[in-house]
Amino acid sequence: MDIVHNDKLLAERIAKGDETAFALLFNQYQAKIFTVCKMYIKIDALAEEALQEIFMKVWINRSKLSEVKDPESWLFIVAKNYLIDFLEKWARSKAAEKLWIREDRQDSDEYETTIEEYQQLLASAVKSLSTQQQEVFRLSKEEQLTYKQIGQRLSISPLTVRTHLHRAMQQIRQYISNHPAILSFILVRILTLP
User: Kindly report the CA angle at 90 between 89 and 92, in degrees rounded to 5?
Assistant: First the structure.
């Protein structure tokens, strides 16, 4: 039986620390995972870096592979989770926003239209939230209030504020995950509001 085509056996070997098996897994999936990275991250160098980090996470967490029933699906879940985390961290940097604009801005009319589309998609995502989540999201992201300040304004505990904001961000991510090409830009915009 060819080990490259038997993901489960390959995963079991990797779980035991087999570097050759890991190299086979990398060679087998690097192109597919890179394609996913490019969907979320439009800059080749950053997508390549993300690819390396994803496989590094796989190697670090290799002991979990022996329990995984579908290694390919698990690998794509690891990739998606890493990419969302990566984009959130990247979005917090004003320098990242400037880099994104410089990379993708071809002419200002096209750029303005694109921003409007992104803002409309984000507005639709926010409208899909409950009234309480919308208000917590607005106060946190637009008015830059702390959990405590939001809690005082809405007469709820800071922990409840945190829960509402966490759930709101999860729902927004889910809503816009059907639009992976613009996910990263939206995250840059909402997480770096002045």
Answer: 70
Specify whether the CB–CB gap between 133 and 167 falls below 8 A. yes
Return left, alpha or beta for 193; rule: phi > 0 is left, psi -120 to 50 is alpha, else beta.
beta
Q: Return the structure tokens found at 69.
A: 């029933």
Question: Residues 32, 39: contact at Cβ < 8 Å?
Answer: no
Distance of CA 22 to the CA centre of its chain: 24
> Is this prediction's pTM over 0.70?
no
Helix (H, G, I), strand (E, B) or coil at 192: coil
How crowded is the C-beta side of 127, counted as CA atoms within 13 Å? Answer: 6
Tell me the CATH architecture of domain 3-91.
Orthogonal Bundle (1.10)
Structural contact between residues 136 and 164, judged by C-beta atoms closer than 8 angstroms: yes
pLDDT tens for 8-36 read 888 899 999 999 999 999 999 999 999 99
Residues 118, 45: Cα–Cα separation, whole Å: 24
CA 138 vs. chain centroid, Å, equals 21
Residue 148 exposed, middle or buried by CB count within 10 Å (0-12, 13-18, 19+): exposed
Amino acid at 58: V
Architecture (CATH level 2) of domain 106-191? Orthogonal Bundle (1.10)
Q: Give the start-to-end residue ranges of the domains of the chain.
A: 3-91, 106-191
Q: How far apart are CA 186 and CA 141, in angstroms?
A: 13
Read off the tokens for 105.
């801005």
